[in-house]
């Protein structure tokens, strides 16, 4: 019997190693069945680790979004293009002046490969300032 290539993630080091492997596999142009199976398994293992070791639970959705943007080297302009919305709307969202719509939540979840629940939580908006 062949030894298991992937195992349940039990450390941050292993988590980071699997994330790097997943990133490399996703970048392969022509994916074989073996590649697709490995991607699916790594996504599941990483998601399981994230669910059990979620450090985002105390953070509001905008804080999480800011963290993910920084982690993925995205600027507001990049997010605007990704979501198909104006840069002013992105600015309003990031500065707590506008909430996240269902469509934006779906797009963010798909892009960052996280659960929609991460962005679909209540948070306080700032009252508009009078000029």
Please sum up the structure shown.
The protein has 131 residues and is mainly α. 56% of the residues lie in helices and 0% in strands.
Oligomer: single chain
Radius of gyration: 18 Å
Q: Kindly name the structural category.
A: mainly alpha
Q: How many β-strands, per DSSP?
A: 0
Please report which band the strand proportion falls in: under 5%, 5-15%, 15-25%, 25-35%, 35-45% or over 45%.
under 5%
What order do the helices and strands follow?
A: HHHHHH
Low-confidence stretches: none
* Overall morphology: elongated
Helicity level: 55-70%
Spatial separation of the terminal alpha carbons: 72 Å
Largest sheet: none
Tally of helical segments: 6
Rounded mean pLDDT score: 88
Characterize the structure shown.
The chain has 131 residues and is mainly α. Helix content is 56%, strand content 0%. It has six helices and no strands. It has helices spanning 12-26, 33-52, 61-71, 76-83, 87-94, 102-112. α1 (12-26) runs antiparallel to α2 and α4 packs across α5 (87-94). The chain starts with 11 loop residues before the first helix and ends in a 19-residue tail after the last helix.
Please describe the structure with a list of short key phrases separated by commas or semicolons.
6 helices, 131 residues, mainly alpha
Question: Topology of this structure?
Answer:
Layout: H1 12-26, H2 33-52, H3 61-71, H4 76-83, H5 87-94, H6 102-112
Helix pairs in contact: 1-2, 4-5
């Amino acid at each position: 019997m062949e030894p298991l290539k992937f195992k349940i993630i039990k450390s941050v080091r292993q988590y980071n190693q699997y994330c790097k492997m997943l990133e490399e596999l996703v970048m392969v142009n022509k994916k074989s069945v073996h590649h697709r199976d490995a991607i699916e398994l790594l996504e599941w293992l990483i998601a399981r680790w994230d669910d059990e070791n979620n450090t985002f639970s105390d953070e509001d959705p905008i804080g999480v979004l800011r963290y993910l943007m920084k982690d993925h080297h995205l600027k507001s302009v990049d997010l605007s293009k990704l979501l198909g919305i104006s840069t002013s709307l992105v600015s309003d969202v990031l500065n707590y002046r506008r909430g996240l719509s269902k469509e934006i939540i779906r797009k963010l979840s798909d892009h960052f490969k996280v659960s929609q629940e991460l962005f679909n939580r209540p948070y306080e908006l700032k009252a508009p300032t009078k000029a």
